C-alpha cells in the first residue's frame, strides 16, 4: 500500500497558483489512473486534472473555490481500498496509525508524489477571507463551539460573503449547527436583506480602479459572484484596453468566390477529413500571407522596442457557456487549408470540454474573433496583451451590390459579403499600415485561387 499526494500542478512557467473549481470525485470513490479527478482554473486556462494513480480518494484537502499555490497538497489517494480504514482511524480522536510505506519511484509524476509522512499544510492566502484555511474562524479563540461550527463555512461561501460584504457570523444557516451553506448565502443576498456587521457596499476586484461609487443591489435583485474565468477575463480586458492605443478600421469584403470554392469542395473535403469546412480556414490562410507581407501586424511592443515575431501563431476566440477562451494555432504558416481546418475544430472541441493544455492558450502573435456567428455585423474587439492587432469577422450574408459589367455598365448583383474589422495598436501600427493589411486581405479573398 502507498499513499499518493495529489498536488496543484504547474500549469505553465508563468503560473504561480490555481483555483480548484470543481471536484469530480468524492472521498471514498474508486479512481482509475488518468481518470478526471478535479477541475482547476488559472489565469491561462480551465482544465480537468487526471488522477496520477489508480486507487481510492481518501482525503480532500482543498475545497471547491479555494485558490492555492502550485505544488500545494490538494488531496490524497490510497492505492488500495484497504488503506481507507487506516486513514479513518488516523482521523478519529485519539486514533493513530503507522505511516504507510513509501511507494516506488514510478509513482511520482506531475501533480502527485509518494510520501510516508504528513506533508506541510496548504499555504493560506491571507489577503482575503476567501482563502482562509479550512477552519474559517476569524478569531475564534473566545468563541463557543457552536459559533465555531456555525462559521466554519466552505471557501465558496466565504468568498461570496466577502465579495458582498456579508458577515457569516450574523447568519443562521440550514446546515449542521447552523452552518451557512451556499444556498443560504445566495438566498440571503437575493433577498436584499442586511446582516449585522455587513459592510454597506461591495468592492471592486483587486487591481481595478473604480471611478465613482459601486452600484448597490436593490430589493429583488439577484447578485452572483463572478466565476474565476469571468474575473480573469475582466482583469485581462481592462489591462489590455489600458495598455494599447486602440484604433479600429472596417472593410467590406466580397466572399462570393470563396463561397463558390467552399461549396464545390465541401462534400469531398468533409468526407476525406471528417471535419466541417467553414469560411474561417480560408480567412486564416489569407491572414498568414497578410502578416508575412505586413510584419508590423505580427509584432509586439516591449518598452521602447518592437519585437517582430517570426512565428505566426493565430489565437482563435472561442465562446463557451462559462466564458471566453482563446486557444492558439501554433506555426499556422506551416499548415495547409485542411490542416488549419483540423486545428480550428480540434482546439474548439477541446476548449468546450476543458481538455486544453496551458501551452495551447499562450503565445498568440495575432488573434481572430468571429462574432458574426451570432449575427453581429461588425465590432471593435480589444487587442490581447502582447500583440498589436486583432481581426473581427462580421456576419456573412447575401447583399445587393453594384457591379461593373464587361462594357462598363453598372448592374445590381447578389453577392456574399461580410464586414471585417481590425483593431490595432496605434503605438506601433499606423493607420496606413492597418489599411494596407486589410486591403491585402480583401484582394486575396476576393481573388482566392481555385482549389
Give average pLDDT, whole number.
79
Q: How far do the termini sit from each other?
A: 61 Å
Strand content: 15-25%
How many individual helices?
9
- Based on CA atoms alone, the radius of gyration comes out at 27 Å
**Helix/strand class:** alpha+beta
Oligomer kind: single chain
Helical proportion, percent range:
25-40%
The SSE string, one letter per element, is EEEEEEEEHEHHHHEHHEEEEEEHEEEEH
The description of the largest β-sheet is: 7 strands, mixed
Please state the overall shape, judged from the principal axes of the Cα atoms. Answer: globular
Structure summary, number of beta strands: 20
CATH topology call of the largest domain: Chloramphenicol Acetyltransferase
CATH architecture of the largest domain: 2-Layer Sandwich
Amino acid at each position: 500500500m502507498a499513499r499518493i499526494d495529489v498536488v496543484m500542478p504547474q500549469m505553465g512557467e508563468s503560473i504561480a497558483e490555481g483555483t480548484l473549481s470543481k471536484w469530480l470525485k468524492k472521498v471514498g470513490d474508486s479512481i482509475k489512473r488518468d481518470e478526471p479527478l478535479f477541475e482547476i482554473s488559472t489565469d491561462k486556462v480551465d482544465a480537468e486534472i487526471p488522477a496520477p494513480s489508480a486507487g481510492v480518494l481518501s482525503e480532500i484537502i482543498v475545497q471547491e473555490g479555494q485558490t492555492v499555490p502550485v505544488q500545494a497538497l490538494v488531496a490524497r489517494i490510497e492505492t488500495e481500498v484497504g488503506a481507507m480504514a487506516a486513514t479513518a482511524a488516523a482521523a478519529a480522536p485519539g486514533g493513530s496509525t503507522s505511516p504507510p510505506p513509501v511507494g516506488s519511484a514510478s509513482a511520482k509524476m506531475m501533480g502527485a508524489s509518494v510520501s510516508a509522512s504528513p506533508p506541510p499544510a496548504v499555504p493560506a492566502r491571507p489577503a482575503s477571507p476567501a482563502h482562509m484555511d479550512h477552519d474559517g474562524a476569524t478569531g475564534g479563540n473566545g468563541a463557543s463551539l457552536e459559533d465555531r461550527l456555525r462559521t466554519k463555512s466552505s471557501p465558496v461561501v466565504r468568498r461570496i460573503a466577502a465579495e458582498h460584504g456579508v458577515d457569516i457570523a450574523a447568519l443562521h444557516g440550514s446546515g449542521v449547527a447552523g452552518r451557512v451553506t451556499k444556498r443560504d448565502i445566495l438566498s440571503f443576498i437575493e433577498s436584499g436583506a442586511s446582516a449585522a456587521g455587513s459592510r454597506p457596499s461591495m468592492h471592486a476586484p483587486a487591481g481595478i480602479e473604480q471611478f465613482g461609487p459601486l452600484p448597490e443591489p436593490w430589493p429583488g435583485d439577484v447578485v452572483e459572484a463572478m466565476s474565476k474565468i469571468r474575473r480573469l477575463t475582466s482583469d485581462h480586458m481592462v489591462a489590455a484596453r489600458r495598455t494599447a492605443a486602440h484604433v479600429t478600421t472596417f472593410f467590406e469584403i466580397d466572399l462570393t468566390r470563396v463561397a463558390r470554392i467552399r461549396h464545390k469542395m465541401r462534400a469531398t473535403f468533409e468526407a476525406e477529413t471528417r471535419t466541417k469546412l467553414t469560411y474561417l480556414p480560408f480567412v486564416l490562410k489569407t491572414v498568414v500571407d497578410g502578416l508575412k507581407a505586413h510584419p508590423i501586424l505580427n509584432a509586439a511592443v516591449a518598452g521602447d522596442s518592437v519585437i517582430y515575431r517570426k512565428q505566426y501563431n493565430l489565437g482563435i476566440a472561442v465562446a463557451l457557456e462559462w466564458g471566453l477562451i482563446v486557444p492558439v494555432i501554433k506555426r499556422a504558416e506551416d499548415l495547409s487549408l485542411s490542416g488549419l481546418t483540423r486545428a480550428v475544430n480540434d482546439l474548439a472541441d477541446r476548449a468546450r470540454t476543458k481538455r486544453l493544455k496551458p501551452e495551447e492558450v499562450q503565445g498568440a502573435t495575432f488573434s481572430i474573433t468571429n462574432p458574426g456567428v451570432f449575427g453581429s455585423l461588425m465590432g471593435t474587439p480589444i487587442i490581447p496583451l502582447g500583440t498589436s492587432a486583432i481581426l473581427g469577422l462580421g456576419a456573412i450574408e447575401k447583399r445587393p451590390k453594384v457591379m461593373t459589367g464587361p462594357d462598363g455598365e453598372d448592374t445590381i448583383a447578389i453577392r456574399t459579403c461580410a464586414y471585417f474589422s481590425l483593431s490595432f495598436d496605434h503605438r506601433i501600427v499606423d493607420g496606413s499600415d492597418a489599411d494596407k493589411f486589410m486591403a491585402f486581405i480583401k484582394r486575396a479573398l476576393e481573388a482566392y485561387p481555385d482549389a
